[in-house]
Amino acid sequence: xxxxxxxxxxxxLLPLEFNEFIPGYFAELSRKFSDIFPDGSLPALITASTDxxxxxxxxxSNSDAFWSDFSNRTGKSRQxxxxxxxxxxxxxxxxxxxxxxxxxxxxxxxxDAKSAxxxxxxxxxxxFPRLAVVHRLAWAGIDPSRFDLIxxxxxxxYAKPNPEYYRQIASDIAKPPEECLMVGNDAxxxxxxAKSAGMATFMVENDYSVRDDGFTPDFSxxxxxxxxxxx
Length: 231
Fold this sequence. Notes:
It is a single chain. With 231 residues, the chain is an alpha/beta fold. The protein has helices at residues 18-32, 42-54, 62-74, 78-91, 104-115, 130-139, 163-172, 187-196, and strands at residues 4-7, 119-122, 149-150, 180-184, 200-204, 219-221. Helix 2 runs antiparallel to helix 3 and helix 7 (163-172) packs across helix 8. The model has no long low-confidence stretch (mean pLDDT 96).
């Protein structure tokens, strides 16, 4: 019996293609930190340190993995840079949502699923701080309080597509993986590793779907179709 629903964000609840979002994100970061990284190296440095989160072995939080790697690469301390990054996410990041639309049905599906008694998890790839995730939820028109757990780079020790990311979620919400359903639009990032962790999978069929010919999800359909599994 399904007792927990895990939702991806980009391409699942929010009409946003992550790879199209990244250039604007890096442009805003580079502008914000042009006095500290005047040579334009910041995007490459952040990309490399993000890889440290993707390959995190679980011995530390993703944020610690990022900052340890980033400090080593830049020679600048976390204590000096982290407050500046927090200010960026507080005051500048929201501009990246200009022009990003929303799917009104996403909020309705979440409300109905929560009313059905499911434990709700926002299982967005935890490579951003909470402030950035909350902004992206706002772009989607979704209240963060709908979720019992929101994964971010402070509270997670793994990242997609590591199956351990999904096992940590199951442990954190005190539900066995077989009672969890991962809902996502990307087979490789969302569904294949969730299945490896013992979870059921639901492929969201929309313009952002990324399929894997070698993988068959347990369920598929429009986002609102998953409600049929709960009633």
